[in-house]
Amino acid sequence: MSGGDTAARPAAPTAERLEAALAPYLRAGCLLAVSGGPDSTALMHAAAAAPHAGLAVATVDHGLRPEARAEAETVARQADTLGLPHRILAWAGPHPRSGIQAAARAARYRLLAEHAAEIGAAFLLTAHTLDDQAETVLMRLARGSGPAGLAGMRPERNLGPGLVLARPLLAFPKADLVAWCEGRGIAYLRDPSNADERFARARLRRLRPLLEGEGLTAERLARLAERAARDDDALREIAQDALGRLAAEDARRLDGRALARLPAAVALRVLDLALTQAGGGEGRLERLERLLAEILPALAAGARLRRTFRGLLVAVDAGGTIRLAPAPPRRAAGPPELLGKG
Predict the structure, then answer these.
(1) Which of these, 46, 82, 116, 170, could form a disulfide with 31 (CB 3.0-4.6 Å)?
(2) Residues comprising the binding site for ATP?
């Protein structure tokens, strides 16, 4: 990391910074997500040493590596030494052949949220670091993400009723946490998949020294995430206010002509919010942009348009009203025609 950015970091010792970062969450019951790596091990030990209202630890065994169970049991022994209850959460059932990392991430958060609800935790704490944030921003840059994606991982987000996912270590370089563990003789595990270049994150990690040499440090990428989050929050607030005006009577009926008068960035978000409120699933930004690019000319021409997107039927009528409704089920394909019938 560049000398200028490193010098700008707070001079307080890592121990003091850890205590300050954890304090707002430890006043309520917390579930700590601990894999056994240096980051989550530092989270567990620092939280256990601080005043707290109640802690529990969970490790997810994704069943993807033979040694994963033994690693989870190692975390369980460490937690027991600290006097903390521990649970191993297993990802059961068939695993997909493709998109395994995304599927594992979704399963991990589902299992952790379910366990947090079971024990009545108010916060689920993970040990994502500054380095993780930088890698997330790089991955989303590579995908051409907009401000919402470039905002990276938010410090907090709701996971369900009464449960907040918090990332208190998001401003900590990984090297600081490794040094903190090693300075106290705290053992931690190394996950070999972190260096497995079948995965994009590992490939980007290999490129990080070259990028940092050009000034693209973790600190600057994290700063980009903060700025993108700031702008994304502002645009979302403006879009929510606009949606309230465009769909005053029914969230599934929008005033298309008023939508067309909005700046494109706001119109895109209004459409996204309306689709979500109407029960639409998740969708890629590129497809949402294409949908808006078809809707706007239809509105200008007073033409009708029907498109299916995110499980919804999006219909524009000649009067400029956009209606959202559940998409009809797809018709089953009939039997194939046989060639050469007499």
Answers:
(1) 116
(2) 35-40
